[in-house]
Amino acid sequence: MDVSVMEIGLPGNGKEVKWRFQGANMMERVSETVICLAFVDGGKKPNESMVIGTHQLQDYLVEFDLSTTQMAFSDPLILHNTNCST
Prior knowledge:
mainly beta; two-stranded antiparallel sheet; Aspartic_peptidase_A1; Peptidase_aspartic_dom_sf; aspartic-type endopeptidase activity; globular
């Protein structure tokens, strides 16, 4: 997508940013002239603190460590010249 957008970072347990959303993982083309931010407002009383959608997970590897109940994200796979569809 040929659009400049800001980067959004999600912190981990501390204040350090653990996962960054960039470009195509944040935007969705609706039509030839309309591009929307691909996030949904949880409302005034959300049931969950955060829900990560499949659009944001595209081209990232997610690791679940069941023994420590932690979750980790890879760098965007595009930085490694690959993606989830290859």
